[in-house]
Amino acid sequence: MLYSLYRKSNASSDYATNMREIASNEGIGYRSFKAIFDYLCKENLMRMRSNSDQADQFYYASITEAGIFAIEEVFRDENMETPYFPPYREMMM
Prior knowledge:
The chain is mainly α. The chain has helices at 2-9, 19-25, 30-42, 55-58, 65-76, 88-91, and strands at residues 17-18, 46-48, 60-63.
């Protein structure tokens, strides 16, 4: 989900979108989505951008600078594992 947000936002922390929609497009069910969403927010890789209680806006979020760094760190060395991702080479298999 983080990489999908990275691509959709064009690596911009100013862009916010509905993460439920991204999860749905990736085939991620609600229970898994909620766990991923909470984890990414807790790790400061993504932040909520809406204080609304409306269901269609509740999961609006944007990638943080730390999230952008975590994604781009994977591209530096395709054989290197990061704290959040396996090596890029393995992800592409």
